[in-house]
Design a protein that fits this description.
The protein is built from five helices and six strands. It is α+β, with helices and mostly antiparallel strands. The chain starts with a strand and ends with a helix.
Length: about 150
């Protein structure tokens, strides 16, 4: 992805796209004219799918409600994060193992000072996640779980 810069004869490099990446969503969401250029480094193995603004709007239904909802969820997450901000791993007492899988395990834990509340703590093997390229999947799961 490149963009022409005023006063410069050569375009400015912005980023490289990989398989599954997308571009142009901002132009579809509004009436702004976008100035980015997309250049295929390997023209024989690149497939570019195209959608027009009307089809995008019909399929997605506008993104205003999604943007607002995400903002509200982020506010909720900040409150939860603040509640557990000072909790240390050594303050957690394992009560039982709830499950074991290929990426790690889930344990039932009690945190000192949380009045008989128990929590599920998911432990993941970072090396395995990276080796199997599951980082995006894990981050999506984190967003879903809040």
């Amino acid at each position: 992805v490149t963009r022409a810069e005023p006063g410069s004869s050569s375009p400015k490099f912005i980023r490289s796209l990989k398989k599954g990446d997308f571009f142009g969503e901002k132009a579809l969401q509004g009436e702004d004219i976008r100035t980015a250029n997309i250049v295929a480094a390997d023209k024989d193995n690149v497939v570019c799918l195209v959608i027009d603004r009307d089809s995008f709007s019909h399929l997605i239904g506008g993104l205003d409600h999604v943007s607002n909802k995400k903002y509200e969820e982020e506010e909720d997450n900040v409150a939860v994060d603040n509640e557990f901000a000072n909790v240390k791993l050594n303050e957690m007492q394992v009560v039982a193992t709830l499950g074991v899988g290929g990426f790690g395990r889930v344990e039932l834990v009690h945190i000192k000072g949380f009045n008989n509340k128990t929590f599920a703590l998911k432990q993941l093997k970072k090396k395995h996640i990276v080796e199997t390229r599951q980082q995006d999947h894990i981050m999506s799961e984190k967003k879903i779980m809040g």
